[in-house]
Amino acid sequence: MQKGIIELEEMEFYAYHGCFKEEQVVGNRFMVNIAIQVDVEKPSHSDNINDALNYVSVYELTRQEIQQNSHLVEHLTERILNAIHQKFDYVDWVKVKVSKMNPPMGGQMKAVSVTMQR
């Protein structure tokens, strides 16, 4: 068995998450990074997409969760983590980081992020 970590980096979305009414109307940019540990032995030898984790499915699952509004980034991050574990029950470990870009903090800030793993 050969373990590998597959990473989907800096997926960018526009969504309407937040506690403030303005955030729910105007929206904001969100960046999502996902790392998934799986057995990569079979696909590394077969060179067959059917033996590998489907990155497009992970992206689409993430996009679907991003489209469902949440008040808290923590809630959104947990939903993405759960959705990946439910759809891909063979994964060993998943780490999800969701960043809200330029959050309304009353000052200049690049992002606020929540990272969860299981």
UniProtKB/TrEMBL annotation:
Signal peptide: none annotated. Its EC number is 4.1.2.25. Pathway: Cofactor biosynthesis; tetrahydrofolate biosynthesis; 2-amino-4-hydroxy-6-hydroxymethyl-7,8-dihydropteridine diphosphate from 7,8-dihydroneopterin triphosphate: step 3/4. GO terms for biological process: folic acid biosynthetic process; tetrahydrofolate biosynthetic process. Keywords: Folate biosynthesis, Lyase. SUPFAM superfamilies: Tetrahydrobiopterin biosynthesis enzymes-like. It is an enzyme of class 4 (lyase). Pfam families: FolB. It catalyses: 7,8-dihydroneopterin = 6-hydroxymethyl-7,8-dihydropterin + glycolaldehyde. One of its GO terms (molecular function) is dihydroneopterin aldolase activity. InterPro entries: Dihydroneopterin_aldolase, FolB_dom, GTP-CH-I_C/QueF. Residues 6-118 form the Dihydroneopterin aldolase/epimerase domain. Catalyzes the conversion of 7,8-dihydroneopterin to 6-hydroxymethyl-7,8-dihydropterin. This is 7,8-dihydroneopterin aldolase. The lineage of its organism: Bacteria, Pseudomonadati, Bacteroidota, Bacteroidia, Marinilabiliales.
